[in-house]
Amino acid sequence: MIARPKHPSARIIAALDLPDPARAAAMAAVLAADVGLLKVGLELFAAGGPAALAQVSALAPVFLDLKLHDIPNTVGCAVAALLPARPAMLTIHAVGGQAMLAAAREAAEQAGDARPMILAVTVLTSMDDRSLADIGVTGGMAAQVLRLARLALAAGADGLVCSPLEVAPLRQALGAGPYLVVPGVRPAGSAAGDQSRIATPREAVDAGADWIVLGRPITRAADPLAAARAVAAELT
Description:
The protein is α/β, with parallel strands linked by helices. It has helices spanning about 20-30, 40-55, 70-80, 100-110, 130-135, 140-155, 165-175, 200-205, 215-220, 225-235; strands spanning about 10-15, 35-40, 60-70, 90-95, 115-120, 160, 180, 210-215. It has ten helices and eight strands. The model has no long low-confidence stretch (mean pLDDT about 95).
């Protein structure tokens, strides 16, 4: 399983959220040496499938962000089917419950020492307290994230995906053990886009993030490599 990053650039996960597999592969080739991982998410996987995943994984470790959520047997089988691609990290929705998360971890164990890190997605960074209330979740964001975090870790998840705003409270409640992967990161001056809970790279890492996920601020920059290096410099 991948180790915690020791160098600033290794903390960066560059999100290849692109609809064109050829363009994503070209972007991956540009960025691979200057980031820790490359993210293959739902958009790229839907566009290019396992072939696109293989192209990216040949260049750098992959954060496979498919946010699996189904009955336990289906999720376990899906994880097992993804193991030949050797993703370094794999995301599962925590709201699927303990049995589903445990099935994902059990399936991942088939890969032995090469098993992917199982990361439980707490609450999407596009959501806020009002969004939670709309789906019947009361008590606020912080309480919901912590509730799901504890459930996921008890079920065998290695770490969590959370917004930058929940990093410090999770560290305070859960300590240094869980790995924290943090999207919703925007360099100062960048547009928030469809993210509701955001922070700068420096703020996220100072709060206790292990890895930070950046997509558009890097991939849509005039010079993506320079943008990635600027983030690493901010973390130095």
